[in-house]
Structure formats: C-alpha cells, structure tokens
C-alpha cells in the first residue's frame, strides 16, 4: 500500500508489449535528442505514452487512457495525474474524494535499463 491506496502498475498483453517494443527506438530518440520541440504521444490500446520532464530531465510518462466521460485527467503542480469528477451532483466540492490515475514516469537511465532487459522479459 502507498498512502492508503493500493499500488498498481501498467500491464501489457502480448500484442501491446510488441507494439511497445516497436516504438522503443522512437522513445529513445525523444529522450536522447537535444531537440526541445513538443513530441507526439503514442497510444497503444488503452495506454498513453507521452513525453515530459521530471526533475529537469526528459522523461516518458505511461498512463492508462481514461475513457469515462464523467472523469477528466489533469496534471497538477507536482506532476501527478489526478482524476476529478465533473461537478454535476449536489455533493459539496470539499467532500469529494480525489483519486490518482496509475502512471509510470521513466527517465533516460530507467528506459535504457528496460531496453537492456527486453529479451529477458520476452
């Protein structure tokens, strides 16, 4: 448990894992290039792979795409993906519980380590 919530991860089925591997070259290029232009995100089934910075370093953010219309994801100041219900009921705003989306942030060194063990994962 982390902060009262169950820890979760992001899971790939065999087809999604193959697509992730096929995009690893693109992800590596985004992490290692000196180009500061906005990079397009990659969508694999229900997983969104976007490119951001964390602690001043280029990073990859993996998160489940939220397909429910009643929720919207926003990135708060600390970089956590927070889901908030759209204010459509009579519950006071201060009484609503916040939930956090499952997300993984990988910096360059973690991603390079993943590249080294891909054959073991297969």
Helix and strand arrangement:
Layout lengths: L13 H9 L1 H9 L9 E3 L2 E8 L2 E8 L6 E5 L5 E5 L13 E2 L2 E5 H14 L1
Antiparallel strand pairs: 1-2, 2-3, 3-7, 4-5, 5-6
Helix pairs in contact: 2-3
Radius of gyration, taken over Cα atoms and rounded to an integer in Å: 16 Å
Strand content: 25-35%
The total strand number stands at 7
Number of helical segments with 4 or more residues: 3
The unreliable regions are: 67-80, 83-87
* N/C terminus separation: 28 Å
Order of helices and strands: HHEEEEEEEH
What's the mean pLDDT score?
73
Largest sheet: 4 strands, antiparallel
State the share of residues found in helices, binned by percent: 25-40%
- From the spread of the alpha carbons, the general shape counts as globular
Cross-sheet strand order for the largest sheet: 1-2-3-7
Structural class computed from helices and strand pairing: alpha+beta
Protein model, in words:
- The chain is of the alpha+beta class and 122 residues long.
- It has a domain of 82 residues.
- The protein contains 3 helices and 7 strands, in the order H-H-E-E-E-E-E-E-E-H.
- The strands form 2 sheets. It has a 4-stranded antiparallel sheet with strand order 1-2-3-7. A 3-stranded antiparallel sheet has the order 4-5-6, with no helix packed on it.
- Helix 2 packs antiparallel against helix 3.
- The protein is globular, with a radius of gyration of 16 Å.
- The protein starts with 13 loop residues before the first helix and ends with a helix.
- About 16% of the residues have low confidence.
């Amino acid at each position: 448990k982390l902060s009262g919530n169950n820890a979760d991860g992001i899971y790939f089925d065999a087809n999604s894992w193959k697509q992730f591997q096929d995009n690893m070259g693109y992800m590596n290029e985004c992490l290692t290039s000196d180009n500061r232009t906005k990079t397009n995100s990659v969508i694999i089934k229900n997983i969104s792979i976007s490119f951001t910075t964390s602690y001043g370093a280029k990073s990859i953010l993996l998160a489940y795409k939220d397909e429910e219309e009643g929720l919207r994801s926003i990135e708060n100041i600390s970089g956590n993906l927070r889901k908030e219900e759209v204010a459509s009921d009579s519950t006071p705003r201060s009484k609503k519980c916040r939930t956090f989306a499952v997300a993984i942030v990988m910096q360059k060194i973690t991603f390079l380590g993943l590249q080294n063990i891909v054959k073991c994962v297969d």
